[in-house]
Specification:
The chain has about 425 residues and is of the alpha/beta class. It contains 16 helices and twelve strands. The strands form three sheets. A four-stranded mixed beta sheet has the order 2-1-3-4, with helices on one face. The protein has a four-stranded parallel beta sheet with strand order 7-6-5-8, with helices on both faces. The chain has a four-stranded mixed beta sheet with strand order 10-9-12-11, with no helix packed on it. α8 packs antiparallel against α9, α8 crosses α11 and α10 crosses α12. The termini are far apart.
Length: about 425
């Protein structure tokens, strides 16, 4: 694909979206699907067709909108009007929603968005989640998707890309917090004898954690773009996404995204007409918690027992099949496209002195607003639990909060 074709896709998608008076977005992430949002979407589509609204109203499935405790969530956007969010929507509510378009609100379903849960967030990784259809690459391209990859391949050297990541201050979001730019630099300098690999660690095994799963369900192309940029920067032409088999929806959408990216020429040979080629494969994990550790993960991809090995040597020097290998997790790669598009200095202006950017959290356990949030680094745990999370409920006290590990929930006492 040449850039002119790329621009045409974006322009056509934006023009088509502009023809609709109403856009109804239905959360089709795993949490809302478990509460029949798929049937709700079918009902809405059927009513739009029956009422001859096809030219005026677009119904589409999107990724996680964040407030999982209020799902299924439906967002209605009408030209010249403020968008409205509906909560706890049942399949039988579809008729009332369609009948209300352009007239009045379904007041009993309205979810206020002027609350700390929505107002205190700052979205980078999740900027498209809940907005675009994760199964349509055209919508991702229309939202500036693959623009960072194009910029990297046509305007920057691999060293320039790494310098931008270093400048951003991005640290690995898998838990260790290792400087991403430093890791990329190490792999770039390693002697791969013509072969290096990029791995995305999507083996999110902690109960109560669903950050990586939600990103892959809601915006899979973002992760693919981040991996491709990383491949160009470190000199790799092949990537692997290692993902838990317990994430069937994320796996399905990831595979759809890879196929679409290949068809559009943003993955595969000579991307954007440049000498750079990059392919991505999906490998399913069998649920072994230990395979979240990078050397055990590598062994599993190689078809061996997922068992950690002593380090050094580190994967950056001796990784997959003995070749230099870059490993980052889903959220880390998902930050990269925005860093390339907006610049490392922009990213570094968010967060704290040593921890830049934002962090995605899954709020689970005994907390009022369970769901997915993204906040600037430096926000206190108290603000997350009580302001954004709404606290632990009336009449009880927060006994303990566990961040990461086996859960991310609040434990309460009466």
């Amino acid at each position: 694909m040449v850039y002119e074709e790329f621009q045409q896709i974006a322009e056509k998608e934006q023009a088509t979206a502009g023809t609709f008076t109403h856009t109804v977005r239905v959360c089709t992430a795993a949490g809302c699907l478990s509460s029949q949002s798929d049937q709700l979407k079918k009902n809405l589509e059927a009513l739009v067709s029956e009422n001859n609204h096809k030219g005026q109203c677009k119904v589409k499935g999107v990724g996680c909108m964040g407030l999982c405790s209020a799902g299924p969530l439906v967002s209605v956007e009408t030209k010249d009007k403020a968008p409205v969010l509906y909560r706890d929507v049942k399949p039988d509510d579809a008729g009332e929603i369609i009948a209300s378009l352009g007239k009045t609100l379904v007041k009993r379903l309205v979810c206020p968005t002027n609350t700390p849960f929505f107002q205190r967030q700052q979205k980078i990784v999740l900027e498209n989640s809940g907005t675009i259809d994760p199964e349509r690459i055209e919508e991702y391209i229309a939202a500036e998707g693959y623009g960072g990859l194009y910029m990297a391949l046509t305007e920057m050297t691999p060293g320039d890309v790494i310098d931008e990541v270093v400048r951003s201050g991005l640290r690995g979001r898998g838990g260790g917090g290792y400087p991403t730019g430093l890791k990329w630099t190490t792999v770039a300098k390693a002697d791969g004898s013509g072969q290096k690999y990029v791995i995305c660690n999507a083996d999110e095994g902690d109960p109560g954690a669903f950050m990586d799963r939600s990103v892959l369900e809601g915006d899979p192309h973002r992760v693919l773009e981040g991996m491709a940029i990383a491949g160009y920067a470190v000199g790799a032409t092949e990537g692997y996404v290692y993902i838990r088999g317990e994430y069937p929806l994320a796996v399905e959408r990831l595979k759809i995204a890879i196929k679409q990216a290949q068809n559009k020429g943003v993955l595969g040979a000579n991307i954007f007409g440049t000498p750079f080629s990059f392919t991505i494969h999906v490998r399913l994990g069998a649920g072994a918690f230990v395979c979240g550790e990078e050397t055990a993960l590598i062994a599993s991809i190689e078809g061996k027992r997922g068992q950690p090995r002593p380090r050094p040597p580190y994967p950056a020097e001796y990784g997959l099949w003995g070749k230099p290998t870059l490993i980052n997790n889903v959220e880390t790669y998902a930050n990269v496209p925005a860093i390339l598009r907006k610049g490392g200095e922009w990213y570094a202006s968010i967060g704290t002195g040593k921890s830049k950017g934002t962090k995605v959290f899954a709020l689970a356990g005994s907390i009022v607003n369970t769901g997915l949030i993204e906040v600037p680094m430096g926000m206190s745990l108290r603000e997350i639990v009580y302001d954004i999370g709404g606290g632990v409920g009336s009449g009880v006290k927060c006994k303990a909060v566990q961040t990461g590990g086996p859960s991310g929930g609040c434990i309460t006492e009466a």
